[in-house]
Amino acid sequence: MTKRRFTGVHLRKWFRIIHRDLSFFFSGVIIIYAVSGIMLNHRGDINPNYTIKRHSLQAEGTFPITEENVSKSMVITMLKPIKEEKNYTKHYFPENGKLKVFLKGGSSLEVNLQNGGAIYEALKKRPIISQFNRLHYNPGKGWTVFSDIFAVSLIIITITGIFINKGKKGILGRGGIELLAGIIVPILFMLLV
C-alpha cells in the first residue's frame, strides 16, 4: 500500500473548497455589514436609522396664547392637520413663547405661541437599513455567538484566499504585493489619525 502525499496541490484544493463554501454561506452577512458600515461611516452627513423631514406650517388656534392657557386637548387639536393626534406623548415649553410636542416614534412639533408658526419634524425609520444597523450594533447574545463565528470565518476565508493561487498571481507574486499594500493602508491610518 502506498502512502498518499499531502502536497501543495491538495492543500490548494481544500483551501478552494473551504474558501468557496464559507464565502457563499456568509455572503449575506458580508453585504449587511458592508451596507450598514457605509451608513454608519457617514452618520455625520445622514442619519443611518431615520429619515427626518421638516415641514413649516401654521398651527390651528387663536394666537398669541400664553403657556398657562395651553391644554392637552388644545395641543391634540394642533396635531390633527398633520394626522398625529393619536401619537401625542407629552408637551413642554423649552423657552418663553415656545411649545414643543413629542410624538410616538420620535417625531415632534414646535409651535411659536406668539403667531402660531410651527415646525413639524417627521421622523421615519429607514426600512431595511435600520435593521441592518441594528445587527451591526449587536442586538443580543445569539447574534454575538453568530458574529464571533462569522469573524473567525472571515479570517479563514482570508487565509485560504491568500494561498489559493500560486506563482506570479499568488503570494509570491502580485498577490503578495497586494497583500502588503492592504496591510500598509490601515497601519498608515492608525499612525496618522
Overview of the structural elements:
- This protein has five helices and five strands.
- It has 193 residues and is α+β, with helices and mostly antiparallel strands.
- A five-stranded antiparallel β-sheet has the order 1-5-4-3-2, with helices on one face.
- The longest helix has 34 residues, at 8-41.
- The mean pLDDT is 92.
> Structural class per helix/strand content?
alpha+beta
Q: What percent of the residues sit in helical stretches (DSSP H or I)?
A: 40-55%
Shape: elongated
Give the tally of structural domains. 2
- Rounded radius of gyration (Å): 29 Å
Strand content: 15-25%
Sequence-ordered SSE layout with sheet pairings:
Layout: H1 8-41, E1 50-58, H2 72-79, E2 88-92, E3 98-103, E4 108-112, E5 117-125, H3 129-136, H4 141-164, H5 174-192
Antiparallel strand pairs: 1-5, 2-3, 3-4, 4-5
Helix pairs in contact: 1-3, 1-4
Q: What keyword list fits this structure?
A:
alpha+beta; 5 helices; 193 residues
Compact overview of the structure:
This protein has helices spanning 8-41, 72-79, 129-136, 141-164, 174-192, and strands at 50-58, 88-92, 98-103, 108-112, 117-125.
